[in-house]
Amino acid sequence: MFKHNINFAKASFKDFEAIPTLDAFERASLFQEFTDYMRANSQMNFRFLTTMKGNGPEMWVTSPFNEEPQKCVSLVSNDYLNFTQHPLVKKATIDAIEKYGTGAGASPLIGGHHEYHEMLQEKIAAFFGRPADSALIFTTGYTANSASLLALLKKEDVAIVDMAVHASVFEGCKDTNVKMFLHNDLSILEKILRESQGKYKTRLVIIDGVYSQDGDLAKMKEILELTRRYAGYLMVDDAHGIGVLGQKGRGVMEIFDVINQVDIISGTLSKAFGHVGGFIVASPEIINFLKFQSRQQVFSSTSTPASAGLLKAIDLIDEEPHWRQQLADNVAYFKKGLTELKLDIGNTESAIIPVKIGDAHKTGDAGRLLLKAGVYANTIVYPGVARKNARIRTSLMATHTREHLDKALNAFEYVNQKLHLSLL
Fold first, then answer.
1. CA-CA distance, 335 to 24, in Å (whole number)?
2. pLDDT recorded at residue 45
3. How many domains, in total, are found in the chain?
4. CA distance linking residue 361 with residue 42, whole number of Å
5. How far apart are CA 345 and CA 93, in angstroms?
6. Residue 124 is part of which domain span?
């Protein structure tokens, strides 16, 4: 029907981003043919399966392979401490809805900023040891990055970005200059910092704390030192570290003792804190600027009263540290099991544990076999990772039991025998 040279058996999502011979609607139709082909051949990415009965170490999953919902060990959730199910967080959320209702009613700038928003911002600022007016919340972690960077960085500025940062950062940098350095490559970063001196008004280095696909950590201390040596600013998105890593749960910045030196901290409320939303922590002047200049703050309704449950979730990071210890124990146990199977888990240092495979179609096969074995894990292909870097991505929770993890390890052993995923 369409003029194209795409081999569905070897294609990835990247092949459909732009096809010169097709308009947008024709391209969407061709993409529909491709995804139908993938489903028919049991290769479809499992990110869009239907799950039931909420978040937890187990989920009921409906899939093309089972007529009835199947109970699976869940390795797909970023609800690391399982605070979405914590009774005290639930109660605080219900109480807030009873008090404030179900919606904010407007954008923050024109009447949608309520008492619970102010309390939450002050709580987040205090969590990082900053003054009360040093934090600003957003409806998602994605917009915390994209909306803030769009407001801050313009054509006379430059973003110096680790190439492995989240997609939201790249979206936020579309109105400015972007220079990328290879992941955690200090020599390239220094070269960019040195050669960009005097050429831009603002030079903002942007990194993650924990990188969302490999689960490894930024070389935080060295990157901060280089940034300061060349008079730049540093922004850290620690969505996957805050609340989980560090002795007090303040994330990768706590591990490297740089919390008070980072110029802009961004994070999410949808992972360790168990809700949805994002935040920026910065100087009061930057926060004030974003309140009036960030389009999301001006034109989009803000968090619902349910977000007031986060006030309790943040307190629990200090009040119940055993959840972090349980998660750390699970991570160590699961990594050891995968390593003993000689699977490639990279150099993860977090609750994100990839099993690297490479080939996208083989990765799809692995995801399908895992699901049949009662383990729900994410198949990550392009655009989540580079085309030849497909993997099964697992995320652990504090509430996983040894029985859950053993079932998952047994499933990986079975898949490895079928598909020969191991390094040796």
1. 43
2. 52
3. 1
4. 10
5. 37
6. 85-319
For every residue of 171-215, DSSP letters joined together read HHTTTSEEEEE-TT-HHHHHHHHHHTTTT-S-EEEEEESB-TTT-
Helix or strand or coil: residue 237?
strand
Q: What is the dihedral of CA 333, 335, 338, 342, to 10 degrees?
A: -130
Kindly state whether residue 175 falls inside one of the protein's structural domains.
Answer: yes
Residue 398 is assigned to a structural domain of this protein: no
In sequence order, the β-bridge partners of residue 226 are none
Strands 352-358, 58-63: pairing is unpaired
Predicted local distance difference test score (pLDDT) of residue 53: 66
**Closest C-alpha to 137, from 166, 161, 113, 106:** 113
Pairing of strands 58-63, 50-52: antiparallel
Residue 369 lies in a domain: no
Tell me 175's DSSP state. T
Residue 410 burial (C-beta neighbours within 10 Å; 0-12, 13-18, 19+): middle
Decide if 114 contacts 240 (C-beta within 8 A): no
Strands 66-74 and 58-63: antiparallel
Across 93-211, where does the E strand assignment appear?
135-138, 158-162, 177-181, 203-208
Report how far residue 111's alpha carbon sits from residue 48's, in angstroms, rounded to the nearest whole number: 36
- Look at residue 1 in the predicted model and tell me its pLDDT: 47
Comparing C-alpha atoms, which of 395, 128, 97 is closest to residue 270? 395
CATH of the domain at 310: 3.40.640.10
CA dist 240 and 248 (Å) reads 15
* Residues 316, 89: Cα–Cα separation, whole Å: 9
Rounded Cα distance between 213 and 163, Å, is 12
Q: Is the dihedral of CA 122, 123, 126, 127 positive or negative?
A: negative
Tokens 């390239």 belong to: 188
In this predicted structure, what is the pLDDT of residue 29? Answer: 94
Looking at residue 388, what is its pLDDT? Answer: 82
Other C-beta atoms closer than 10 Å to the C-beta of 122 total 17
Short-list 56, 101, 13, CA closest to 379:
13
Rounded distance between C-alpha atoms, residue 162 and residue 372, angstroms:
37
* Positions in the chain whose pLDDT score sits under 50: 1, 46, 424
* Two structure tokens written together for 383: 């655009």
Predicted TM-score (pTM) above 0.90? yes
